[in-house]
Amino acid sequence: MDTRNTSVRPHARSRNGGKNHPYRRTRGTRADAHPGGVIHDNTRHTTRFTVIGNHLAQHPELSALAIGPAVHIQSLPAGTPVDIKTLAARFPEGPTRIAAALRELETHGYLRRTRERTAGGRIVTRTVSCNQPGRHHDPDPDRDPERGPDRAPSEAAPPRPPARRPAAAPQRQPARRPAALLAHRLTARLPPLPPFRTPEPPPDVPYPLVNCDGCDRAFRGPVGGRCHDCRSLPPEAA
After folding, report:
1. How many helices (H) and strands (E) does the chain have?
2. For 67-90, how does the pLDDT look when each residue is reduced to its tens digit (9 = 90+)?
3. Domain ranges of the chain
4. Fold for domain 54-145?
5. What distance in Å separates the CA atoms of residue 132 and residue 59, rounded to the nearest whole number?
6. Which of 97, 134, 186, 217: disulfide with 93, CB 3.0–4.6 Å?
7. Among 116, 46, 92, 103, which residue's Cα sits nearest to residue 70?
8. 93-125, pLDDT tens digit by residue?
9. Is the distance from CB of 68 to CB of 82 less than 8 angstroms?
C-alpha cells in the first residue's frame, strides 16, 4: 500500500490559503489602505448636535471663512442675534471679513436678510438661515421683528400692501442722423421771439459851458451865442 503509483497525475496545489492568494486582502486598518488621508474617530451624538448637509460642509465655491459662520448660525436657536457686530465679537475675524462671509452665504442662498420697519419706526434686519437653499418657506410671515418668534397669532400685524416698483424709464434709441436732427431743432424747435418793445429815445446831452459873446459870462449853450440875459436886452443896449 505504500507503493506510489507513478501513472497518476499529481494533484494541483490548493490556492485558497496563504498570503499569496491574488484576491485575498491582508487584514488591516483603513490607514493601511490610505496612509495619507484623514482617519475618523467618530462617536455617535445623542444630545446637543446639529445636522449639517455635505452640500454646505463640502461646498465647492464657498470659502472656509463662509462655511464656518454658516455652520455656527445653523446651530443657534431661533431668535439669537447673528448680525455682523455679534459675530465679530464671537470670532477672531473682524467685521469686514465677517460681512464678506455673510455676503457669500446670501449669494448661494444660505442666508436671506431683509430690512423691515417696526411699528415704532425703528429699522431692523431680519435674518433667515436656510439649511437647504431652494427649499425654504417663511416660518412666521406675520412675526414682528422686534418681538421675536414668540408672538401670539392674535397679535399678528396687519398685512402690508405690496411695494410699488418704480416704472422703468424708456430707453432712447441713438439718432441715426445727428446733423439733420440738430438742423430740425434749430429751425422748428426754436423758442418764440420776445415781444417787440419801442426803443427809448436817447437821453438829452447838456450843452457845454461857454462864454457869452455879450457879457463874457459862462453859461450852457451852443458855442458863439449869448446868454439869456443878453438875449433879453434890446438891441440898442446890447
Report:
1. 7, 4
2. 999 999 999 999 999 999 999 999
3. 54-145, 210-238
4. Arc Repressor Mutant, subunit A (1.10.10)
5. 12
6. 97
7. 103
8. 999 999 999 999 999 999 999 989 888 889 888
9. no
